[in-house]
Amino acid sequence: MSVPNVLIVFYSRNGSTEKLALAVAEGARAEGAEVRIRRVRDFVPEEIIQRVPGWAENRDRMYALYEAPTEADVEWADAIIFGTPTRFGNVSAELKAFVDSLGGLWFQGKLNGKVGSAFNSTQTMHGGNESTNLSMYNFMAHLGLIIVPTGYADPVMFQGGTPYGATHVSGPQGNPPGESALAAARFQGRRVTQVARALKTSKAS
């Protein structure tokens, strides 16, 4: 049986999206995937980062834990799962900058047929949970990825997340994801892995 390679690329400022990424990874590994977790880098000026309580500390902690994603990671992956906090109902600039750097691989056709999926976190209810996941569908389609949503293919999806991918609402206090959001993220990791394995097995045969 083929072992699918799953790449999780995320951006997180206060840790909410990071916790979803870890839950996605847990689900993927439970389904037998080889997993790499990568956090994209900040490019906001340091003086702005220092004005926001906790930003620099979380950035430094995550820099120590997670490597930056590379083209080699993307080539290695059979599936790429993108995670981001919502920025005005859309993907964060930090994650989008990494996506924009993949033009060379796209031009060579090296992304065609890989699996793609998306998850996100917002601060406010109805703050862009669905629109942010859908916004990532746009660039995944351009890259040639086979988009895999969560749908309602598992009962956990009726308790948390959206049919487009796992989500979390942190609130003004930055509350971490609860069990329903984490369960949706774990299911997303399993589902993406299942599809990636089927595609990889089909190609091998």
Write the layout of secondary structure elements.
Layout: E1 5-10, H1 16-30, E2 34-39, H2 46-51, H3 55-65, H4 71-76, E3 79-85, H5 93-100, H6 103-107, E4 115-122, H7 129-143, E5 146-147, E6 167-169, H8 179-204
Parallel strand pairs: 1-2, 1-3, 3-4, 4-5, 4-6
Helix pairs in contact: 1-8
Mean pLDDT: 95
Cα-atom radius of gyration? 16 Å
Strand content: 15-25%
CATH superfamily grouping: Flavodoxin domain
The end-to-end span amounts to 11 Å
Give the low-confidence spans: none
Largest sheet data: 6 strands, parallel
CATH topology title:
Rossmann fold
Task: Kindly name the structural category.
Answer: alpha/beta
Number of helices: 8
Family: Belongs to the WrbA family.
Protein name: NAD(P)H:quinone oxidoreductase, type IV
GO molecular function: FMN binding; NAD(P)H dehydrogenase (quinone) activity
Pfam families: FMN_red (PF03358)
List keywords for this structure.
Rossmann fold; NAD(P)H:quinone oxidoreductase, type IV; FMN binding; 8 helices; six-stranded parallel β-sheet; single chain; 205 residues; FMN_Rdtase-like_dom; alpha/beta
